[in-house]
Amino acid sequence: MQATDKPDFLKVMNGMAAMRKATLIPEVLDLWWACMADWKLEDFKAAAIQVLKTQTFMPSPKDFEDLRKAGRETAGEVFAGIGRYIEYSPYGHTIKAGTPRPIAAAIRAMGGADAYAMCEVEKLPFLEKRFCQHYEEIIEHEDTRQSVPQIAYGKDSLQLTKVAGTFTAIGKVDS
Fold first, then answer.
1. How do residues 86-105 score in pLDDT, each as one tens digit?
2. Among 10, 29, 42, 79, which is least packed by CB within 10 angstroms?
């Protein structure tokens, strides 16, 4: 949201608080404003209506983020279309270039493109379960890494060091 959106934002917040008999102090409103900074005002208003329809108590910013996440494909939906991310070859199967990083990482974590391409039909549900578990965890961490890179990639985080075109060393980043 832009600074010019703040009066309308405050109207929505005060309306939600009045409906839920909640009290909003300036410090809480400042935190809400910071949490919703990456939202468009119209999206925020639409989400507020949906949250008020489905929540009994005063919503939190997490309720809004949960709505945003609900628009993404589920892990099962991604797995159902996994074939579009795999290249078939008589010499082995690979993950296609341009595959989104979380999907490629989940494919590798479940055993790779060959594990999917060569899986027996009766074992496919087990492979799907493994993929879904990995994909959900990867997506959750991706969200955190994008939202707070200063924390996720801070001085105490583990980093891969690229040396001569290959990743050869893992260690803490010195400041």
1. 998 888 899 999 999 999 99
2. 42
Q: What is the largest CA-CA distance in the chain?
A: 65
* Residue of 129, 139, 138, 132 whose CA lies nearest to 65: 139
Average pLDDT, the chain: 85
Distances in Å between the Cα of 144 and the Cα atoms of 53, 119, 169 are 28, 33, 24
Classify residue 170 as exposed, middle or buried by CB count within 10 Å of its CB (0-12, 13-18, 19+): exposed
Percent of the chain with pLDDT over 90: 63
The values of phi and psi at residue 174, to 5°, are -90, 140
pTM higher than 0.90 = no
Residues 129, 159: Cα–Cα separation, whole Å? 29
158 forms beta bridges with 172
